Amino acid sequence: MDILIACLKMKKYLFLPFAIVCLATGAAAGTSAGTSVGATVGATANPATSTDDSITKIAPLREIVNINRDWKFFSNTETDSDGATTVNLPHTWNHDALGGNKNYFRGIGNYMKEIEIPYRWQGRRVFIRCHGANSIANIMVNGKHAGEHRGGYTAFALEITERLRFGEKNHLWIMVNNSPQTDLLPTAGDQNSYGGLFRDVELIVTGAEAVVPTDKGSEGIYIKQRDITRERAEAEATVKIGGTGDANLTALLTVISAEGDTVARREARVRLHGRAISTVTIPFSVDKPRLWNGMADPYLYRIGIELRKGDATCDRIFTTTGFRWVSVEPGGAFVLNGEPYPVRGVVVTQDRSMVGTAITRGQVREDIELIREMGANAVRVLGVSHHPEFYDLCDSYGLLVWNDFPLVGAAHLTDKAFFDTESFRRNGEQQAGEIMARLYNHPSVVIWGLFSNPSTCAATTLRIMCAALTSPPNAKTPRGSRRLRATRTAK
User: Fold this and answer.
1) N or C: which end of the chain has fewer CB within 10 A?
2) What is the CB neighbour count within 10 angstroms for residue 213?
């Protein structure tokens, strides 16, 4: 594994002062109460308005229902829900943390919502996906526990089909807890831990056999770049597929250029066993690919996966990626597609004045435009993962991304950053896997930041985090890169 210390510079100032990092080598890259969600089928979501309840048809066989509107919210400081207020997502209850107040509320917040589930969904599979719930989320459906997620800045999805009543009103309850935990990253640092459902929440509706949205919060498709040159791109797609019983399927892969031309087709057979998730790997190649070349030419391809059962199509889903290769030379020069690529970067945090981390897509776009106006061509996402829209825009504009893991040292040398326990290490490995899975196909993500402020780094914990990078579907050493010894930069 390539571990290196990068100090990328903007003029004479250090771009990223103190972190242990690793090259990213594998990424190619509601309705109100009583209203039926079925009434909005076929509507198109407005990407700039995250508070709209709507369904975006990804394909005729798959639907995504945004349920951001009209949640009832109350904290556990109240004795009951009678005083609940109506909120739209994204939402944080920590407006008391704005303005530098250090004594902000850290505890439990409750989000409740009534949704009428259409009867026509009977026989289909329904998942709920949260893109950000800080930092522990427990989901109840009609009074039954559906699952828990520990980690505030990564997406997660749960299947809730068996807990739904089709053709009736259903009660959703998401309990979010941002109280300090000794075994949940980040446990240190100087950023506020804003509590709430601060990103989109949605329902995903699929057929019985589908590419699963439950694999570490990703879309279930991972594009691994095996060998990329200007003459040929050799890659493979790893696809996670689930069903409700035994079945024989065919997975068809299509690579589509930005101009709409099909440049590659492949297929593979896959056998499903009960409700277990099956994995299929489909190798493919593209002759004379147009490379993703940073801000000069951030060219992207669409890759589609279609599942067929006999002559019938079960599911269809797309991901976006770009072909490129990166390396860092021993002298510190960053190399993109075999050419030196001078880096001018800035550090990005997630919180924003007046809203904390509950930012909208429009506000993310504003931040990206400011970064481009400054003349930067790279960003470091500090401490945790950013909004999904942020990475899509970095792909489209050609901005390089250094993305941190939430393993953060203490802000002061006399402070204890974490307790090196087994549960802490498990959570670190879990969150590292989720971050990489979610960002795996983004060509803009070129460096993983393993540890921020590593003066308090425990060697055993760092080894656990590093080991996570070599676990499937994570990447291996890129073509043309060199293995570097892990060290630390001077302050």
Assistant:
1) C
2) 26
State the greatest distance between any 2 C-alpha atoms of the chain, in Å, as a whole number. Answer: 66
Q: 490 and 363, same structural domain?
A: yes
| Cis amide leading into 75 (omega within 30) | no
Q: Please say which residue of 321, 354, 370 terminates a domain.
A: 321
- The single-letter DSSP state of residue 478 is P
Spatial separation of the C-alpha atoms in residues 153 and 349, rounded to whole Å: 12
Structural tokens at position 162:
């068996």
In this prediction the pTM is 0.85
For 302, the domain range is 221-321
DSSP one-letter code for 390: H
Distance CA 486, CA 479 (A): 20
Do 81 and 228 reside in the same domain of the chain? no
* Angle made by CA atoms 320, 223, 341, in degrees to the nearest 5: 75
pLDDT tens per residue, range 273-327: 999 999 999 999 999 999 999 999 999 999 999 999 999 999 999 999 999 999 9
CATH number at residue 279: 2.60.40.10
Q: Kindly state whether residues 72 and 201 are assigned to the same domain.
A: yes
The answer on 148 and 16 residing in a single domain is yes
> What are the structure tokens assigned to 409, written together?
């040292």
Residues 426 and 314 in one domain: no
Distance, in Å, from the CA atom of 252 to the CA atom of 286, rounded to the nearest integer, reads 16
Burial classification of residue 331, based on how many CB atoms lie within 10 Å of its CB (0-12 exposed, 13-18 middle, 19 or more buried): exposed
E-only strand ranges, 188-341: 196-197, 201-206, 210-211, 221-228, 232-242, 247-256, 262-272, 278-287, 292-293, 297-298, 301-309, 312-321, 326-328, 334-336, 339-340
Q: Are residues 365 and 267 in the same domain?
A: no
- Amino acid letter, residue 159: E
Where a domain ends, among 273, 299, 321? 321
State both tokens at 453.
């402020």
